[in-house]
Structures are given as structure tokens and as C-alpha cells.
Amino acid sequence: MNNFFKGIMILFCFFLAGINMYAQVLDKSWKSITEIKDESWFASAEAKAVAENVLLYQRHIGGWPKNTQMQKPLSDAQKKELLALKTSTEGCTTDNGGTVQEMLFLSKINKQQPDVSYQKAFLSGLDYLLKAQYDNGGWPQFFPLKKGYYTHITYNDDSMVNILNVLKEVKDKTDFYSIKASDDLVAKAKIAFDKGIDCIVKSQYKQNGVLTAWCAQHDEVTLLPAKARAYELPSLSGKESAKITLLLMAVENPSKEIIAAVEAAVAWFEKVKITGLREERVVDAKGKITDKKMIADANAPALWARFMELDDNRPFFCDRDGIKKYSLAEIGDERRNGYSWYTNEPKEVLKAYDKWKKKLSTELNSIKKKVAKAPKDEYNIVVAQDGSGDYTSIQDAIYNSPSFPYKRVLITVKNGVYHEKVRIPEWNTKISLIGESKEKTTITYDDYFGKINLGRNSTFLTPTVLVEGNDFKATNLTIKNTAGPVGQAIALSVVADRVVVSNCVISGNQDTLYTSGEGFKQYFKDCFIEGTVDFIFGNATAVFDNCDIHSKSNSYLTAASTPESSKYGFVFMNCKLTADEKATEVYLGRPWRINAKTVYLNCEMGSHIRKEGWNNWSKTEAEKASFYAEYNCSGPGFQPENRVAWSHQLKKSEAKKYTLENILGDSNSKSNSNWYSNFK
């Protein structure tokens, strides 16, 4: 055989070997294929063919079904059927690796064969994960919700941990995924991750007052352990708790609550580990398990039961009849051999614990040194999430600001989404909170009345930002309450005097902005303020100058509770009143207390403002005691001839009295008489 034919034969052999290699790949499980480490395979035609299947299986909502071998070839009829199912949401899930595995596959093939369709599908999957999250931070097994135990917060088979690991890579902007999210999605991922971790910490089970571990499912409302299938009873899980603990250990700069959760879980794993016992499996010629037995073995590595009693950690087992048994031998063949009753996963937690503890100690020492040193200039403080400033948390900066300072304390906040509740206490006066940019410096939290649930005054405990210190100033910030339309949920609460908020976005739904303090004066300049019901409310004297006041639903814009002794209440100057398309009938205000005062001067009113303008909140006495007025306004929403008879249209001579000096000026203090004129 000449050299030419030898070369041809060699190439042919390589070709056959390649075909055989790819065939072996496609014979693996779908999960195994998504986890292939050989990047070159994702550059192959076979990988591209699989990717086309992955795109077909994805629903328009962004999710995928579970337990689907997506590498299997599809007939034309099957492809047509999948295209018809695109608009269906049935079966979309994160259970058994659903959605997160497909996203991983798309990321890997996009790295080798970049394609816009892969990128769009991945980002749609990410959006699906974000939409599926409960307000309390947990995730159901299926989204949209499927009736039954599927609505429970699902830790089973590491479903929620898998989601949070995706979000962690996205929020940290790592290179793990080749497809990059927008800044907006990154910000949303960070919020969702923090909420998820908060849910995990809050759902950790207390046994006789002592923190232990987690159940496979937790009730989506009470967060208590919950039942799933007949043989999956409420219990402490040796399996699911392992991955949860490892996730908590991966959180950077963990809170004291996270640290306590990890410490408690590790102590519990040590307490409930099983020694001297080995699982022996009998396998047939096809590799199928035909029997499982627990054998005494003094040298066996530690094991943990998957299900343990909530009160005493005793391992138990269940058949499909749902009756607890305390020996695996008592369970029928089908469930005994077809389910994982023991696990060794917690060994990874115990292995990682010492390293985590050492790293934590190093970080804490670093923080202590930084706090001990304090900023170089305590009157000029920088907050930056990347560690380049004096603090990474706004609240830490405030905690370390001088009390009752002689001069103004400037706290500059670098761009980032700060998911924290911020409080400026009464003793932290003269603080200026200065964002790097209104669009990219965001403070956000999601407390609401029902979540706080401490009685009838729970509303006042919901603010994302609470200002109690006088002479506070904020500029170039976005302040949000992201709880959604779930009732009262304050974004910004101002219970202080001589406060200036300029060039800020204040966003929420019901009760967005609370302006309070009898006799207190506050000034909002060039701000965007949005909400639904009574989204500007309170008893302070507050001026809104050149602000965009945006209604998100049919409701009431203001709910003033002005004291009878106050000459002015809410005054809107040169503002623009806008609305979402669905908001077509909005009142200018209603009286929270009967002496409410609200005036609009030179404002442009959209068509969403009701022709009658004002509502008495079923308080007829308010029609005499309140003062609701307008002057020289414009736009389709300004219909003075149709306003309620008990409201007022100011005369020019009356309107002249509404100046900043008259409303906000402090005649008792020369140094503070024009406090509203300096925005920083």
C-alpha cells in the first residue's frame, strides 16, 4: 500500500474514532452532557444539533421542562409539536436541574460557536428564574405555579441552590457563563440572590430553640417544613442541607445571621452523622439496583440519613403508603431500591468548614482593622461595593459617622445596587448622601406591611430608607421599595426637619413616600416619584419643585395629614403629573386627617387626573376643615370648572404667598433661613 492510501486510511480511522467518540457522548444522560469539561466537543456539529433541540424545548416564558433527554434526535413531527408548545407554560420548572442545565449548555456552546439565538435563550431563562421567585425570596418547584405541594419553597434535589448559584455567577459578573447579562439584569440578580439567602436563613429549622438544618420543602407562607410526595414527609434533610450550607459558606462578607446559620448546620451534621454502617447494593447484569441493604462496618465512612425526625433527628423511611418506618429493611423493594435514603454529601461541608472558618477570621480581622482606623476624613466618607471606598455598606458608613457634627458629613455613594435598609438616626444630623449617578446608584429593599406583621402600625417599619436626623440631604440616588403591589410598603420615610432631596428617583407602590413631623419642613427638587395608592402621604410641610409625579394605577396621589396648626401642607410647584397607560382615573388627593392641605401651582396635569380632582375619603367634615387648591395649572387633567365644590382655585394674589421663602424659610434662625437652597 503506497503512502497516499496509508494517509487516507489513517484519516478515515480518525474520522471513525471521532464519530464513535461523539456517539458515546450522546449516549450519556442529559445532565452529564451539560457538565462535559471538554470544551472542544461544544464546537462540534453534534453539539450544534443538540443546541437546536434545546432551543425548541424552551417555552416563550423562558423555562424548560425537566427529565428530558434533549440530546435525542427529533423527528419532524416532534419538532412541529414542540413549536406548537412554545406558548404553553405547563411543565416549566427548576426541579431536577430543569432550566439551569439548559442555560449551562447554551453558555458552553455559545463560547465555542457564538450565536444570538443561544444568547437570547439564556437571558430569557435568567428572566424566567427572576420572575419565578416569591416575595419572601424562595422559589416554587414549578412556575407558573402548579397546584399541590409544588408551590412549596423547593430545596429538594438542590433546586433552589442551583438557581442561586446561577444568580451568584451573574451578579458577581464572573466568566463562568459566556453569555453576559445587562446591568439591569445583574442588579436584579443581586437583589434576587440576597432575598434567596435571606429566605434560607429564615427557614432554617429550630429544634427546641436550637438552629439545625433544612427540610426538602418549606411552606411558602410560614417557611415551616412541609410535605411533598407520600414518602417525603416533613423532616430534616441530610442531603439538601449540605448544598444549602455550602452555598451559605460561599457568600462574600457574610452577615452574622449567615455565619450563625453555617455554624449551627455544621454542628448538626456532626451530631447526626452515622458511623459503622455501610450501604450495600446488589446490581444485575444491566447495572440496575435489585436490592439495598445496610451492613454493619466499623471502617465505613460517615453517612447521613435523607429524612430525620424534626424533634429528635431519628432517621426514618417511608413507602408509598406514607407510614414512617425506622429501618430501611421494612420498606418495599420498589421504594427501597428506587430512592436515595442515605447520603455522604455533608462530608463536603465538614471538609470545607475549617477553610471557611479561617477565611472568615481573616476577613473579620480585616474589617475590624478598617473600622478601627476609620476613614481618613470622617467628614468625607466614600461607600463603594468593590471595596475601593471606606465602606461597602451605606449603613456602615452612617454608623461610623460623627454624631451631632459641627459641620456637614458628606457620604459619597459609588454606583451599585445596595440591597439594604438604611437608617439615618436622630443623632446623625447634617448628613449628605450623594450618589455617583441617579441612574446607577440604587438603594433597594422589599419590606411591606404583611411581611413585617407587627400590628396595625407595621407600615412605618417598612422603609428602605428612614431619615430621622435633621438637616439631611440626598442627591443623585434611586430609592426603591421592590415589594411590589402587596399593600403598604414605604421606599423613603422622612421624619426630620430641614431635609432636601434633589435629583432622586423614589419608587414604590402604595405609600411610597412618607413625609412626617409636625412643624417639620422638607424640600423635594427635580425628583421622580412614583407609586399607586396614597404614594405621597404624611403631616410634614413639604414642597415638591419641578418633580415628575407618576401614578402607576387608578387611585389617590396624595394623602396629607397636615396638623391644623400648619399653614402649609403639601405644595407642588412646576410639577408634571404623569401615569402608566392603565392609570386613567387618579385623584389629586384625599385627607388622611381632616385638616389636610395640598396645593398645586403651575403644574402640568395628564388626562389620568379625574375631573372632580379631590376625594373626601368619606369624611364630610374634611370638606370644611381641609384646604385643597390649584393655581395656573395646565394639561387635560386640569379641569377647574369640574372640581368638587369644596376645593379652591387660587387668585393671583393668593398664589403669590406660595414662595419657598414663605413655606420653608426659618425666620428663627439666620444660619438656617435658606437651608433649602444648597442641594449638597
From TrEMBL:
UniProt-listed InterPro entries: Pectate_lyase (IPR012669), Pectin_lyas_fold (IPR012334), Pectin_lyase_fold/virulence (IPR011050), Pectinesterase_Asp_AS (IPR033131), Pectinesterase_cat (IPR000070)
One GO biological process term: pectin catabolic process
Protein name, as recorded: Pectinesterase
Lyase recorded as keyword: yes
Domain Pectinesterase catalytic: 380-665
Species name: Flavobacterium commune
UniProt xrefs under Gene3D superfamilies: 1.50.10.20, Single-stranded right-handed beta-helix, Pectin lyase-like
Pathway assignment: Glycan metabolism; pectin degradation; 2-dehydro-3-deoxy-D-gluconate from pectin: step 1/5
